[in-house]
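batch job 7 of whatever, protein = Peptidase M14 domain-containing protein
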Amino acid sequence: MKWKSLLTVIALSFSIILAEKARFDFYRVYEISVDNDVQLNLMKQISDYPDGYQFLSSSPPFTGIKTQLIVPPHKFGEWSELVENFDLQVKLINNNLQASLDREEACYNRRKADERDFNSFWRYEEIQSWFQEKVAERPNDLSIFSIGTSYEGNEINGLRINVGNQTGKPSIFIEATIHGGEWLGATSTINIINEMLINNYTHLSYFDWYFLPVLNVDGFKYAWSNNRFWRKTRKPNNSLLCVGADPNRNSDIHWNESSVSANPCSNNYPGDYAFSEPEIKNLSEFMKTVPNLKIYLSFHTFGQFFMIPTGFTDDRIENYQLHYEIGEIANAAITEATGAIYQLGPIPEFFGLVSGISFDWVFENIKPVLTYCWELRPTRGEVESELDPVSSKLIEPTAKDMYAAVTTVIDEAEIRGVV
């Protein structure tokens, strides 16, 4: 490693330690077409040893799927050489990332703290305040639940809807924002709750609902305060320079086997050991207490993928056909609602083998009838020149996508008598 690169790593690490707000002045974002194994290996090396680079997508690149890479100014020369030497097909989609972030932040700041704008991103405290308002309005039907505390001592709270507070109902669990910067998952969850309550959704009283908009609370709050693109947890790891693990590689389900990095500074570092991250350990323990779980749904960003378990093997799950048939109907509902198209299939079809992911652990250990994971808007080939996939302009259409998808999955499961 060159001394300049080493100094950069040290400087970035101390920024994390000192909690300085990361800036991205004149950072560029490139869209890359990964067309062969040589290019794929290069992308994986960059993912494992980023040295200032960062992928916007939630998983390492995969052949045939476009990916988006943040390139810092000190890497411009090196990046140009890599593009030429590896014959990469790239497109510049943002030439000053900080300017885009500043414009987006100005939108947040214009909104009053007590203003409930469902087309804006909310801080964690705003989400919790809204939960309290909803519970106060319907105390017999709604309650706040906690799966435990994060490494930094934050309560990981969700909203439970059990109309009539009756026991014995089939349960549905919806979680989002396992990665700190994936705010679109949180807003989609909030919008689904709001729409169901306003419209008195047909099956609202039939199920016992658990909504967890923010699983990785520490990472989410850090993305707000310090680094918009923060993904990992905030617990110290075995490195002296970096903190955190990828919470969606940390579950005790084929842990540390596929799509992970041994480098603690990588966004795909799976943690020092399985369930090393309290957020993920807490989720697993809480899921054991959820009565009669029938459906488990998870929101990530981005790519517009509609995924069926499992990630750790190419083998099809026993009820794959049921998942696929209901998924096709839900996909049709999305397209009818917004025109959007989500690719449906097992995780390895889109990302290769991926191990240690939370919804696989739930599927294998808690055994709900249906388990799905969505990568939300935009598609990997539709990232525009501004801030996609972190722009608030995506909130409304994505919320409509997911309301159509979730309600259709549940309606169809009820029609088929599997819940």
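notes: The chain has a mean pLDDT of 91.
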